[in-house]
Amino acid sequence: MSKDVLTNLYSKQASIIYSYLLKHGCRKEVAEEIVQDSFVKAIEHFHAVEPEKLSAWVFKVALNNYRNYLKKASVREELLIDETHFLKKIAKDNALEDILLLEEKATEIHDCLNSLKESYKELLILKYEMELSYKEIGKMLALPDQTVKTYLFRARTAFKRVWRDHHGR
C-alpha cells in the first residue's frame, strides 16, 4: 500500500470520522486526537489490512478509541444532533408526524436514542444526521449495501418502538 492510498483515505475519511465523533458529543480536542491516533494506527498497520477494507478498519479503530476514552474518563458525552432534523429523516409513517411538531422533546429523543443498541444509534446518526449514503456507510462498516439497508430498517423500527413505549403511541 502506498503513501497515496493513505493520503487519499485521510482526505476522505478524517472529516467524516471527526464529524461523527462530534455528533456523539465528543469534545473537539478529543475528536481531533482520536482521528489522529486512528490514522497513526493505519500507518503502523497498513501492511496487515487489505486496501479495500482499510476505510472500515480506520472507522472501527476510531470508534474503539472513543469507547475506550469514555471508559477511562468515566464520561458519558451528550449526543449533539438536531433532534427535529433527525426525526424528519427517519419518520416513515404517519404515526410519527405529530412528533415533528414537538421540538421541545429534545431530552426525550436523546433518551430514546441512548436506549438503543450502540450499533443502531451509530447507523441512525450516520444515515440521518450525517446524511451518508448506504454505500458510504457500507464502505465505512465493511458491509454490503443491502445489509446496511436491513440494519437501518431494524434501527428505525427499534427507535419507533422505544419512542412509542415512552410516549404511549
Automatic annotation (TrEMBL):
Q: Name one GO biological process term.
A: DNA-templated transcription initiation
* InterPro entries (alphabetical): RNA_pol_sigma-70-like, RNA_pol_sigma-70_dom, RNA_pol_sigma70_r2, RNA_pol_sigma70_r4_t2, RNA_pol_sigma_r2, RNA_pol_sigma_r3/r4-like, WH-like_DNA-bd_sf
* PANTHER family linked to this entry: RNA POLYMERASE ECF-TYPE SIGMA FACTO, RNA POLYMERASE SIGMA FACTOR HI_1459-RELATED
Recorded hits in Pfam families, A to Z, give: Sigma70_r2, Sigma70_r4_2
Originating species: Desulfosporosinus youngiae DSM 17734
- What's an example of a GO molecular-function annotation for this chain? sigma factor activity
Superkingdom in the source lineage: Bacteria
| Gene3D superfamilies membership | 1.10.1740.10, Winged helix-like DNA-binding domain superfamily/Winged helix DNA-binding domain (1.10.10.10)
Q: Which UniProt keywords apply?
A: DNA-binding, Sigma factor, Transcription, Transcription regulation
Name recorded for this polypeptide: RNA polymerase sigma factor, sigma-70 family
Which family does this protein fall into?
Belongs to the sigma-70 factor family. ECF subfamily.
Positions of the RNA polymerase sigma-70 region domain = 10-74
Which residue range or ranges hold the RNA polymerase sigma factor 70 region 4 type domain? 108-157
